[in-house]
Amino acid sequence: MLSAGRRGTYFWILFLLSAISASRVRAAIHEYNNEGFIPRFNSLLFHGGSEGLYASRIVDQPPIAGQRDENNKPLAGKSFIRFESITFRRPKKIADKQNEMQQSTGVVEVIIIEVKDSDKIGGAYMNSSAICCHPYLAKGGNCKVGEVILRENPDNPGWPRKLQVSFEGRSEEAVMVPQTVEINETGMYYLYFVLCDPELKGTLISGRTVWRNPEGYLPGRMEPLMTFCGLMSLAYLTLGSIWFLRFVQHWKDIIKLHYEITAIIALGMCEMALWYFEYANFNSTGRRPLGITLWAVSFTAIRKTVSRILLLVVSMGYGVMRATLGSASSQVMLLGGVYFVATEALELVEHLGNIDDVAGKVRVFLALPVAVLDACFILWIFSSLSKTLEKLQNRRSMAKLELYRKFTNALAVCVLLSVAWIGYELYFNASDPVSELWRRAWIIPAFWSLNAFLLLIFICILLAPSHNPTRYAHETGDDEEESIPLSGSGVFAGELVSIVDKERKVVEVLEEDKRE
After folding, report:
1. Separation between Cα atoms, residue 336 and residue 352, nearest integer Å
2. Is residue 485 very low, low, confident or very high in pLDDT (cuts 50, 70, 90)?
3. Contact predicate 397/322, CB 8 Å
4. What is the dihedral of CA 87, 90, 96, 98, to 10 degrees?
5. What's the mean per-residue pLDDT of the chain?
């Protein structure tokens, strides 16, 4: 067993390696377009990608002697990394210095390593930070000078996997033979191209690698999200159907808030359906479909913006305490517009590009405005709720007061859960720098969608269409009498209020008769 300190050192080394570069497409097909190697310790290194891969369900039999590995084997049930058109190009002045008759005048090593084998690469076990073997380390016979220090995992023979590509004579290019590496153990895999010869500085790489899971090209950490989005779209469809039936049943008594809630349900359903089809297309082709992704990102930004505006205007008493927002309308729309632009930009960066390609400062620059605007919404919402509750208390509108108390409690629980989840997310990312817990990563984005959906359900129950909402919708006087809540109490509540109204009218008539 490795000590905690040494294991932490290995993970930190692997994390540093993965942070220096990344492929240009956040997809199962990683393309390299004449990209350079980065100095790291005593090597030149290029990070070819990293993905969570599940083990193949179908394992091929060992090939017959003399038979070449073919790339056109059936893909169903297979998990693999395939190298296609990988070409290395070194500077001409370096190539001209070589012996034309020499068979190998430079070597590029291709390393595929699973995160749990991070202690098998480099000289950390020899108390050295070197990645490539040098004469001093080679004295003990633990490595070969000029090659990557790599130890085999005794529990998984042949891993970590090392492939080599050689430059011949004075050739400026070295082409990697197309080949497929099958994955037979589930894990987070990292791909590195390493140069141990300092004379190869300036070498460029082009080509692509294809990563595939048994069920398709969708990366392992994203695979559960396709199922989640499919279930969420069905959940929105169910909620929308129930809401529509209630909407039709009381269509004569509909108020403006009901139309806004309907719009949010429709946006949520379209959003989840688009994300499902986006993941499904990604899974079948290996590339993110630009058109569907743009629509999904836009629907997400619109849904988030409209939801926050709805919460804000309800908190301000719109539709219940007041018929219009007055001068506050322009301020609400301005905040909503700015929030939409900021959210759209952040969502586009997160879903249309590789997160690793965006510098940390750029990500903070995009995420910070969204966080600040969310805080503005929260402060404004609870400030408005406080004023609304105070007005209702002064007017003694007990039914509306009870409604807003429930609404306030629901929002408070939602905000507390969100803050707690942000803390968990920060802990999760800090404790898993090399994505060893990639199979649980999908829970992070899924929570936010589920949290918003549950809050929407509560609002639908609280403000469901019912009898006599016109009197309840908003107050025109300072001392208007108590009215029924827009809740699911339905027909019974409506009949009860009608009886109370009739009794009140009878009392008024009797009092008038006495005065006469």
Report:
1. 23
2. very low
3. no
4. -80
5. 80
H-helix or E-strand spanning residue 164: strand 161-166
Which residues have C-beta within 8 Å of that of residue 247, sequence separation ≥ 6?
254, 258, 262, 465
Helices then strands, each counted (H, E), the chain: 12, 10
- In whole angstroms, what is the distance from residue 301 CA to residue 275 CA? 13
β-partners of residue 290 are none
Backbone phi, then psi, for 216, in 5-degree steps? 150, -170
* CA triple 435-441-447, angle to 5 deg: 155
Please give the order of strands across the beta sheet that includes 38-40: 38-40, 43-53, 187-195, 107-114, 161-166
CB atoms near residue 3 (< 10 Å): 8
- pTM comes to 0.77
CA distances from residue 234 to 19, 231, 258 in whole angstroms, order as listed: 39, 5, 21
Residue appearing with tokens 């099958």: 182
What secondary structure, in 3-state letters, does 358-396 show?
CCHHHHHHHHHHHHHHHHHHHHHHHHHHHHHHHHHHHHC
Contact between residue 311 and residue 411 where contact means Cβ atoms under 8 Å apart: yes
> Are the CB atoms for 106 and 200 separated by under 8 Å?
yes
Is there a contact between 321 and 257 (Cβ–Cβ < 8 Å)? no
CA dihedral 96, 99, 103, 108 (to 10 degrees): -40
Residue 65: in which H helix or E strand, if any? none
Rounded to whole angstroms, how far apart are CA atoms 413 and 416? 5
What whole-number distance in Å separates Cα of residue 13 and Cα of residue 149?
Answer: 14
pLDDT tens across 383-423, in order? 999 998 888 888 877 778 888 888 889 899 999 999 999 89
Tokens of 198: 């300092």
Amino acid at 355: I
Bond from prior residue into 214 cis (ω within 30 degrees of 0): no
Q: Is residue 143 classed as helix, strand or coil in its secondary structure? A: coil
| Residue 39 zone, left/alpha/beta (φ > 0; ψ -120 to 50; rest) | beta
Lowest-pLDDT range, 215-224, 322-331, 340-349, 417-426?
322-331
Six token digits for residue 492: 């019974």
